[in-house]
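With this grant's support, we have paired protein sequences with backbone structure tokens. One protein thus recorded is set out beneath this paragraph:

_____
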Amino acid sequence: KEAVVTDGEDPAYRVIRNAIKERKFYLEQVNAYSCDVYIKGLQRVTEHPDKIMGMDVDIDGEIDSLSGIVYLSESVSKFNFKQPDKIKEEMVSSKVSGDNKAFSYNRASDMMFNFYENVIEIEDLSERGFVSPIANDAMLFYNYRLVGTIIQNDSIINKIEVTPKRKTDPCFRGYIYIMENSWRIYSTELYLTKDAQIDFVDTLMINQNFVPVDKDVWMVFSNKFTFNFGFMGVKGNGYYVGVNSNYVLDPDFPKKFFNNEEMHVNDDANTRDSMYWEDTRPVPLSLEEIRDYRRRDSLALIRNSKGYMDSLDRKTNRPKVGEIIFTGYTFSRRYNQFSVGVSPLVRALSYNTVQGVKLGMDVSLFKSWENNRYFSFTPSTSYGLSDRKFYLDGEATYEYKPIKFARITVAGGTQTAQLNSKEPVPVFVNTCYTLLAKKNYMKLYARDYVNVNWHTEVVNGIMFTGEVDYSNRRPLFNTSYYYFDASEVIHGKFMNSYSNTLDNRYFTSNDPLHPNDNLSAAFNAHKAATINLQMTFRYKQKYYTRPNEKIILGSKYPTLGIQYRRGIPGIFGSSTDYDFLKVSIRDELDLKLFGKFRYYLGMGKFVSKNHLPFPDYYHFLGNQTIWSTFPQQSYQLLDYYNFSTDNWYLEAHAENHFGGFIFDKIPFIKKAHFTEVVGVNFLMTDKVPSYYEVYFGADKLGIIRIDFALGYMQNAKVSAGLRFGLRL
């Protein structure tokens, strides 16, 4: 019947206040439970361009021309939970339309949104969480309106409309149904829009329904997520439906039942026949879904045949101009799971002051097997037109046990390498800065080398990497001084060359220690044998396993890293003789409405240095250009080599991604849907008592980013600048 508003307040507020009072009780009411979970997911594309950045969007014809469906999957799992956050899930059956060998990526835990939590976390959609309509402080974020009441089985159910107080608050819109007297959630019809600063998805609708499973205990019976998305001209929609059944409250779980493996996909999960699914699925298939299963399962027989794959190869293996120039060309043999790729022309041509115009090409050979093992081989070749030297090397990797991340890599040949093995200066960026700004930041040396690297997971949470390297190192010198001069371009002179190798008018030498002496070398030629051992420890690392695959979910504890590097003298003429130790700790913390906080702390010391050549110094990931990919252990403004140390260091990096917490309160800026980043970098060495940076940035879609940074040496400002690029 008609709702009556008294004293200027909507009756919904009385209901919500009572629901908030009972929120914590219902959150913790059931200590443990198990249930069966059926999930069906569907995704479709409704609009798409033929090409994006020169690449075909639907090269394999996976988009159904009639329905637009690209993915349809079903799964059945046994889900187990124990307070406060212990999860154990077993996928017992899986079905993927068009691929009877595949396993679904459905996870019951991804469907278990709990609005009794104060903040709802939705990974991949936002850096921060979303306020529940019945959170403790929900009335600071929401307006409420009683739409009406429903009487069902002698129970009164209040239908309450919820809207954000501020348009861009991290809040839901829609309806929440609260039962009178018990004040529990009966169902939800809530949704998020772009106004809530979600990425990639335009709208996400969450429908939940609860049912009684015991006296005074109601549990989720069904979840349905419906979404619309749009990105780079591709538009579509989809849904995921989850149905929970066969609840058992407070089951007697065996001792150590809950461990670090949160989910396991059985090896035979994809072997169920159509009769099984007919008897099991609680939600009947729509006519569209029936058609998609029939169509894709029929096409799968054709598409998995050698004849079809060979015909597809003949079509896609034809070289295209865009591939040759911009993206690289790949020749495939799909049936044999083999491919050969060639780097694009834009990467074949570069420039540096050591080699001059550099011509280079990379070729990649890749072979995989159905058990996720793979082998790759990548030979690389380059030639400098100025120094007239030819380089050829290659790298081969064999991953032989994917579930343990076990692989071995062998590399060798002759190459030019940056003095800083972290390679802080990208080739294309160096080319632009050298030719246009007369800044030759990249510093190179030559080496003939053999390298063997072995990586594996020892036990869950402990990764080990062992590397042995032998190199014959030689210093290099500048041989070329070309650049573009804007004033001369105006007069028709496109290049100006200073051929005198002693003329250091614009460019620094290839020795960062003596930038004004073009005949100086950062080190003397020598042979180096080194061994590098690294281990990372992540306590109680959560993961889930699929046949021949392990997916790491993370841990609530930080990751500890230990490294030992040794220069071994006397092996094949090696003269290096030093010992280096390093420890580090890093983590990412969920600050709920305040986003994600990431930090890294590292310290290292050369405990001995009888012979420590400059390439073996500890170098930092600095940046003197406007371009950045924003890696966590980097500095925004730091010189590439001035702070390199042969003694000890302490570095710290901290960064908070607020996910729109600040920007969505600023007019005009909030409409652009940028999210804010704030961070600080710190460095101390035996020679530098204190260097630190503070920076403020704007991030778009977690991809495009621009920062403004300030650098301070012993509390005095020494630098400032903008950095923009792609966040990796």
In short: The longest strand covers residues 32-47. The first helix runs from residue 12 to 28. Residues 482 and 497 are 5 Å apart (CA to CA). Residues 497-502 have pLDDT under 50 and may be disordered.
